[in-house]
């Protein structure tokens, strides 16, 4: 090993690096994301059975899914789901809850204000800022472009 030149070492390293399993990852993301959506649909159907209107059902479904994502993160289950499902676990609203709870848990030893509260939105914060900012820009553009119609 000591007498390898740079080119030989590069070839050696490329042989040792594990090859990503893209197809498997795509399938697992699809399955996990789909299962999260199935849970959301079950919650939605259940809330409709209790006679709630469309707005209440939409709000209730979102609230319950965020709670489930936060709760599962708190007991250490959502991280395991995320390892299996990748983007399938990160993209739904439960992944948003996970992105808020995980940093808060990590920094809880630093106290409630400077730990939990300060770090809670370290991952989700930029997503919120750019999401709200871009929606405002799109809204203004739509207003300006469709004002005469």
TrEMBL record:
Pfam families: SpoVAC_SpoVAEB. Keywords: Membrane, Transmembrane, Transmembrane helix. The chain crosses the membrane at residues 21-44, 56-77, 84-101, 121-145. This is Stage V sporulation protein AC. It comes from Tissierella simiarum.
């Amino acid at each position: 090993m000591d007498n390898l030149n740079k080119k030989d070492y590069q070839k050696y390293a490329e042989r040792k690096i594990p090859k990503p399993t893209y197809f498997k990852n795509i399938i697992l993301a699809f399955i996990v994301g789909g299962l999260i959506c199935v849970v959301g649909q079950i919650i939605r159907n259940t809330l409709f059975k209790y006679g709630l209107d469309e707005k209440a059902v939409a709000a209730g479904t979102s609230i319950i899914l965020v709670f489930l994502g936060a709760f599962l993160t708190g007991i250490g289950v959502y991280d395991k789901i995320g390892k299996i499902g990748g983007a399938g676990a990160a993209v739904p609203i439960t992944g948003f809850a996970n992105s808020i709870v995980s940093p808060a848990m990590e920094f809880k030893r630093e106290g409630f204000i400077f730990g939990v509260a300060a770090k809670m939105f370290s991952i989700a914060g930029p997503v919120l800022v750019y999401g709200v900012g871009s929606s405002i820009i799109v809204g203004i553009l739509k207003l300006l472009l469709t004002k005469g119609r």
